[in-house]
Amino acid sequence: MRVPHGLLGIEDLTREEIQEVLDRSRNFQPRDRGKLDLLRGRMVVNLFFEASTRTRTSFEIAAKRLGADTISITAQASSVSKGESLVDTLNTLAAMRPDAIIMRHAASGAPHFLQRYLDTPIINAGDGTHEHPTQALLDARTILDRGAALEGLRVAIIGDIAHSRVARSNVYLLSKFGAQIVLCGPASLLPVELQRIAPGITLTTNMREAICQADVIMMLRVQLERQHEASFPASEYFQFYGLRLEHLELARPNVIVMHPGPINRGREISSEVADSQRSVILSQVENGIAVRMAVLERVLRGVRN
Ligand code: CP
């Protein structure tokens, strides 16, 4: 299904559409404190059924910087906690005529399903293990800020691939731009079906092999909240899949280390790496505002470059 006005996933976007959002985001500098009035009089609802620090806050800041009004609702504070269905909740909010609903939900496909019932555009802020489109956009923007083109870039994505919507959205985006993608993690967390998205993708359980000559190392959190049984011995995870300073020597000299956050120090990444010169984790957070401003403008005003 293709929804022309919302943003459900990177899968739906063409390379040109992605490039337009990234280019437009350069007009919005998060350090500019001034408020624009590009979305004055518009209203955006932030509806989060899962915890979030970065995504929810940066969408709210982005909307406010563009002059829109925002309302944030969490699952606990909504009538879903009284048994209201998701469709009824969304229809109720849509009846108040917001211009867009930004939504995070634990069920993969929830925003796609709801968009069929709603005229209000939905922006997917993460659906289960499926997609997190604005994370992949801000990741691409962060890589490009380092001066590297995406084409031919070797990107190692390491960790809990199976439960990661960030990995899936990045695989869609990076493969559209011709990057060389290596997915790495314990065999139980390394789904081979991702090779269907990008046939040229490499899968390995060997972290050193994944990092060898990498331009970008993207670490992922182990998503224990989505695992119903142990997929690996937790006590040995850091030994085999935790990023340490010694690993960086295997990568290209100007490698960057990324992580969508929240990071678990000592589980998937050491503090020495997270706080090192090679880490761009906080640049990712900062770019999240500019990219989400570009997405909101595009969705609410239909602005193209
Ligand atoms: N990267 C990310 O989605 O972080 P939050 O869960 O804090 O929004």
Structure, described:
This protein folds into two domains: 15-131 and 286-300, Rossmann fold (3-Layer(aba) Sandwich); 147-279, Aspartate/ornithine carbamoyltransferase (Rossmann fold, 3-Layer(aba) Sandwich), CATH 3.40.50.1370. Strands 7-6-5-8-9 form a five-stranded parallel β-sheet. It has a four-stranded parallel β-sheet with strand order 2-1-3-4. With 305 residues, it is an alpha/beta fold. Helices cover 35% and strands 14% of the residues. The longest helix is centred in the last third of the chain and has 21 residues, at 281-301. It is built from twelve helices and nine strands. β1 (43-48), α2 and β2 form a beta-alpha-beta unit. α1 packs across α5, α1 (15-25) packs across α12 (281-301) and α5 (133-145) packs across α6. The protein has helices spanning 15-25, 54-65, 86-94, 110-115, 133-145, 165-176, 194-197, 207-211, 237-241, 245-248, 271-274, 281-301; strands at 43-48, 69-74, 100-105, 122-127, 154-158, 180-184, 202-204, 216-219, 256-258. The model has no long low-confidence stretch (mean pLDDT 93). The protein starts with 14 loop residues before the first helix and ends with a helix. The structure holds phosphoric acid mono(formamide)ester. Phosphoric acid mono(formamide)ester binds next to α2.
